[in-house]
Amino acid sequence: MDACVVLCIIRPWMNHVLKFQFLQLKWLVDGRTFASSIVCPNFSCVFFTVLLIILLFCVFFRLVTLFMDELGHISHWRAIMAGSLAGMVATVVTYPTDVIKTRLIVQNRLEPSYEGIVHAFYKIYHQEGLRALYRGVSPAILGAIPFSAGSFFVYISLDKIWQEPIVRFTPLQNFINGCVAAGVAQTLSFPFETVKRKMQAQSPWLPHYGGVDVHFTGMADCFRQTVKNKGVLGLWNGLTPSLLKIVPYFGVMFSTFEFCKRVCLYRNGYIESPLNYKLTPGVDQSLHPQELRELKLLRRENFEPRKSALEN
């Protein structure tokens, strides 16, 4: 599994990995900074992240088996598709917790509308109905399309940019690749993220309609009102702090992921060292790790009787 695939898998929860969410939602309010955005740690993001990680990988590995060919192989494009679909399914299932997280952030801390996760869920459901818990899910799902396309475009262009095979990239190159892939993918999908957050935050039951700077009736109207009042670039408001958080995060993640993958290949005997990608001589690279271990064990068993016979 390549780092590009991992990027598509973990995209739905990458905005929830930080304890405080002030920078992410600062651009939602119209000249007002709510106290809860600064001093109240968003514990719901921890709950959301744990739930989503478990569900994501369960769905992903199930989808991978559906995209495999008769030999059990899967192409990069199919793997990215499986990761994107897994992210969509997990996003839909756990989306209410994302809405609750946003509401807890934008509420006025001096006069809080919600007392916690359970109270927020109960109050939103009884005041606004079940649909309110899924407000903004459409742009969340549609945003996966440009995100996956952007990450895949960067991935297939890496060998042309560096003029060498991907498997020979150094940790520094992998770090740069992660930064570039995350930056391009996040920039392409950010308008959907903007609309999603606005739709989540807007509520007639919150002061100032949740602090949203434009009022709308749906996803298309939110796009239209944002462009009308803020211009086209208004869809990318808040992109800079988002990139400052996401780009180095995925740079470190990509380089660490690739290094750990090389360590696993080295421990299984496919390469000579985790510091380079030089293949181990005499090793069939098409064998699975279990098959390779069984082959080594068989060779050892055949070698020991010959050694004993020579000694005798």
TrEMBL record:
InterPro entries cross-referenced by the UniProt entry: MCP, MCP_dom_sf, MCP_transmembrane
Transmembrane segments: 46-67, 79-97, 140-158
Coiled-coil residues: none
Family designation: Belongs to the mitochondrial carrier (TC 2.A.29) family.
Record keywords: Membrane, Repeat, Transmembrane, Transmembrane helix, Transport
Pfam families reported in the protein's UniProt record: Mito_carr
Solcar repeat windows: 74-161, 169-263
Species annotation: Zosterops lateralis melanops
GO CC, any one term: membrane
Protein name: Solute carrier family 25 member 5
Chief place of localization: membrane
Location of this chain's protein in the cell: Membrane
Mode of membrane association: Multi-pass membrane protein
Signal sequence coordinates: none
GO BP, sorted A to Z: transmembrane transport
Superkingdom classification of source: Eukaryota
Keyword RNA-binding: no
